[in-house]
């Protein structure tokens, strides 16, 4: 697949920015003593609320917290480094789907509290999910990232 210079620039910028967001969110959770997703999970709304509340119970919260922080960091690293970015994007899509469904911004479902980026039906999780879908189907790591080293025949192609 060949990209024009503007396409390559914006796809790579999107990959790096989304990667930074995931990496930062993961690392800050790993490095913040006492951070927990328990409140978020226990306050879940919508049809899957029982699943999220189960994941937030005292017996499982340690596993839920660790998996969340490690998965966020892993997605961030794959996107920033441009290696296994499709897998990272798919993991991120799955995570964002869960985040969205835990607190959907649907009519008739009360919000857990004031939240930046939580609007009618579409919220920031859904927007970033769509961005990761673009990155999964238009990868750039094999052009500008460590993916170059795993497939040396790939070179940056400009259309």
CA-based gyration radius: 17 Å
Fraction of residues in helix: 55-70%
Strand tally: 0
SS field, number of helical segments: 7
Low-confidence stretches: none
In this structure, how is the largest beta sheet organized?
none
The secondary-structure element order is HHHHHHH
Summed over residues and divided by their number, the pLDDT gives a mean of 88
Q: What structural class should be given to the helix and strand makeup?
A: mainly alpha
The geometry reads as globular
Strand content: under 5%
N- to C-terminal distance: 10 Å
Oligomer: single chain
Structure at a glance:
With 159 residues, the protein is mainly α. The protein is built from seven helices and no strands.
